[in-house]
Amino acid sequence: MLPASALSAAAASSSMTGPQGARMKSMLAGLRANGEEGRQVEALTQLCEMLSIGTEDSLSGFSVDSFVPVLVGLLNHKSNPDIMLLAARALTHLCDVLPSPCSSVVHYGAVACFCAWLLTIEYMDLAEQRVALSTAANMCRKLQKIWFVTRLLGGLHP
């Protein structure tokens, strides 16, 4: 039996194939490059660009379970506010484009990070506040719809 991290890596490998997959693997490696802030900023910038112009179809191979925990970790990168802001933007774009990541974003603790941002004026500028508020509101709306549909379908099909 493989550990959870190996299963996650295996799932990410199988879903990230072809030229787009190679690009996503490279970005994920850049995001995970602890201590190399320049590489992380570059990977975050590329990811934000890809997600901002992507569609649900073009991002069908995107591994939410591989990227979201890393992005949430980067939200807490207090030594570099640019990394924090770019990670927030990436999560925002991700939730806007794909239907599935909201539950993962909540599961990995992004809402708590966004709320902490709102309470910490030190890192807050107008752009960060807008990103934090819009992302949290978007996730709440989507999760509320998912919950409602699940309850509705659950009530119809015992």
Show the helix and strand layout:
Layout: H1 4-15, H2 18-31, H3 37-53, H4 64-75, H5 81-97, H6 101-107, H7 110-119, H8 126-156
Helix pairs in contact: 2-3, 3-5, 4-5, 5-8, 6-8, 7-8
Number of domains: 1
Shape: globular
Q: What's the alpha carbon Rg, rounded to whole Å?
A: 16 Å
Q: Helix-strand pattern, N to C?
A: HHHHHHHH
* CATH homologous superfamily classification: Leucine-rich Repeat Variant
- Distance from N terminus to C terminus (CA atoms, Å) equals 33 Å
In DSSP terms (H or I, runs of 4 or more residues), the helix count works out at 8
The major β-sheet equals: none
CATH architecture group name: Alpha Horseshoe
Question: How confident is the prediction overall: mean pLDDT?
Answer: 76
Strand content: under 5%
**Helix coverage percent:** over 70%
Extract low-pLDDT stretches. 1-14
Structural class by secondary-structure content: mainly alpha
CATH topology-level name: Leucine-rich Repeat Variant
Give the class-level CATH name: Mainly Alpha
Number of distinct beta strands: 0
GO molecular function, one term: ubiquitin protein ligase activity
Catalytic activity: S-ubiquitinyl-[E2 ubiquitin-conjugating enzyme]-L-cysteine + [acceptor protein]-L-lysine = [E2 ubiquitin-conjugating enzyme]-L-cysteine + N(6)-ubiquitinyl-[acceptor protein]-L-lysine
Enzyme class: transferase
Domain E3 ubiquitin-protein ligase TRIP12-like TPR repeats: 20-130
